[in-house]
Inverse folding.
């Protein structure tokens, strides 16, 4: 492939033309203290930084951006930092998922409207990864992803803590009355103690692994802890590499083919990845024009063993995983199921990137003949309660509940759940099926992580720690339990979940991939005729735009106009 010439750079239209507009662009760059030699004829590299003072996962990104700039300068590029919306998973309400598409739109427009030749995408906290990659895929400029990296292990009273997973675990004990306020505060003080994303195998680590399996992260970079000095070196290496990618015109469309997505799905399953990966993978594939369905994910889950022994599905944390060999070691063990000739941002194939990788701890990264569990990472369910699909994470669920029929206990929305779940007069038994509706893409709104419904307090006191739970919402990738999620179509648009009444029998059969409401057709027809659509959640702003455009969970919750529309146009420069 012939390398680009300076006059073929996209930024040349801004900085290289001898006219009044070019004069204006150059003079403003000089106003900021840059000399002509800093930018003339050089690739302009956007550093998309999702740092904020409210995003602990990204609190090191100010420094990392400087390290990316160092690499860009070293390679002969011109780095420019462009801030983008920071989606702090624990902070943003009602849910960061509401704003994933907003961030994707923002980054697409940042890249489109500025004199950008290539981009380093800085993200990691759950929705930032798919949002940044969706934007880069649509814009199709050379791009490389720099993951935030996981945080260090949590610590409390000599015990290792994992963010998310242990929060759910000990909150249940707090509600059950087995730990006091002083202990709870001590756990709070020790569970998250460094920069970086959740150190469990939550959505953040799942999606950065997916990004690397897709070929968009430099060699082994997706699992480096945020505090490790290797992470700073990864930042500079990404800065250097993106400059060469611009000269070589190596774009997402050159990397993101069907093979890359098949690899990504299989890696997510071997990781024991978050159920959220399902909705993000569908959206990302849609942007790349690659056909991917829930059934493809279910098929991969049946085929790929769980090899990463990381909480909540296993015993260790991401720091242990990295020092056991990291993603390169996992990929090496999985290579017989991967398509090794898939290209990557390194300029080498996936197989070439993995060559020579070693596993240093067989208990953390398991061999193929000794997987973490015989259960599967993901199962896709269909039936009368989920005609368009639902998902469950069998490896994080209770085996005895994988085939279960019980009476529904229905909560109309999250406020109803919060008001009644701990009442002593709640009619519920361990065999009940807890149902939450109005938690989907439109009903939530934004499909919040409410799907791990709390166990009723009176059952917690009796020793119950899991029940079958069904919703059209999501759950954190750090969560666990027998939770059926992403029920589609959602209740807010009249899906069968809207018609369930307390006492109705619900049947879950994971081996058969079924989720059924055992109510006869005539009764369902009467309920359907009586159902009335709820009022819209938003009447203005982005919320109204989102409500008008968002697709259902089985289609990735993207905006169809972004997924199916034409490629972004080049701006006129007048």
């Amino acid at each position: 492939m012939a390398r680009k010439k300076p006059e073929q750079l996209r930024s040349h239209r801004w900085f290289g033309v001898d006219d009044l507009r070019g004069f204006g662009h150059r003079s403003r760059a000089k106003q900021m203290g840059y000399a002509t030699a800093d930018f003339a004829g050089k690739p302009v590299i956007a550093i998309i930084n999702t740092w904020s003072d409210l995003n602990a996962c990204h609190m090191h990104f100010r420094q990392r951006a400087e390290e990316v700039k160092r690499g860009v300068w070293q390679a002969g590029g011109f780095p420019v930092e462009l801030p983008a919306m920071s989606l702090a998973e624990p902070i943003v309400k009602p849910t960061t998922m509401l704003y994933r598409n907003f961030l994707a739109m923002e980054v697409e427009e940042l890249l489109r409207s500025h004199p950008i030749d290539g981009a380093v995408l800085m993200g990691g906290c759950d929705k930032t990864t798919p949002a940044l990659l969706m934007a880069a895929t649509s814009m199709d400029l050379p791009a490389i992803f720099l993951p935030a990296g996981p945080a260090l292990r949590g610590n409390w009273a000599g015990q290792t803590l994992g963010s998310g997973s242990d929060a759910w675990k000990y909150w249940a004990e707090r509600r059950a009355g087995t730990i006091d306020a002083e202990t709870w505060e001590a756990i709070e003080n020790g569970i998250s103690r460094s920069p970086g994303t959740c150190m469990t195998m939550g959505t953040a680590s799942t999606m950065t692994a997916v990004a690397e399996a897709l070929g968009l992260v430099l060699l082994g970079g997706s699992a480096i802890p945020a505090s490790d000095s290797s992470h700073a070196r990864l930042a500079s290496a990404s800065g250097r590499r993106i400059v060469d990618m611009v000269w070589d015109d190596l774009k997402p469309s050159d990397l993101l083919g069907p093979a890359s997505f098949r690899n990504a799905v299989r890696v997510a399953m071997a990781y024991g990845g978050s159920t959220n990966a399902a909705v993000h993978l569908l959206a990302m594939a849609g942007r790349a024009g690659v056909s991917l369905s829930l059934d493809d994910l279910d098929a991969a889950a049946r085929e790929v063993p769980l090899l990463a022994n990381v909480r909540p599905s296993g015993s260790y944390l991401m720091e242990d995983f990295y020092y056991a060999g990291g993603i390169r070691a996992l990929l090496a063990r999985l290579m017989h199921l991967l398509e090794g000739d898939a290209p990557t941002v390194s300029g080498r194939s996936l197989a070439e990137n993995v060559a020579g990788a070693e596993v240093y701890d067989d208990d953390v990264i398991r061999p193929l003949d000794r997987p973490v569990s015989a259960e599967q990472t993901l199962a896709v369910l269909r039936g009368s309660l989920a005609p368009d699909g639902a998902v469950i994470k069998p490896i994080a669920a209770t085996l005895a509940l994988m085939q279960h029929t019980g009476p529904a206990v229905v909560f109309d929305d999250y406020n109803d759940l919060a008001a009644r779940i701990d009442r002593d007069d709640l009619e519920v038994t361990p065999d009940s099926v807890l149902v939450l509706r109005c938690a989907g893409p439109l009903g939530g709104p934004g499909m919040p992580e409410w799907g791990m419904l709390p166990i009723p307090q009176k059952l917690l006191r009796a020793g119950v720690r899991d029940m079958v739970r069904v919703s059209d919402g999501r759950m954190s990738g750090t969560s666990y339990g027998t939770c059926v999620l992403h029920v589609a179509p959602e209740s807010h648009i009249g899906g069968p979940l809207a018609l369930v009444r307390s006492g109705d029998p619900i049947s879950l059969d994971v081996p058969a991939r079924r989720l059924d409401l055992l109510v006869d057709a005539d009764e369902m027809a009467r309920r359907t005729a009586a159902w009335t659509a709820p009022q819209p959640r938003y009447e203005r702003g982005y919320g109204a735009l989102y409500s008008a455009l968002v697709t259902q969970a089985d289609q990735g919750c993207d905006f169809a106009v972004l997924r199916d529309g034409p490629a972004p146009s080049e701006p006129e420069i007048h």
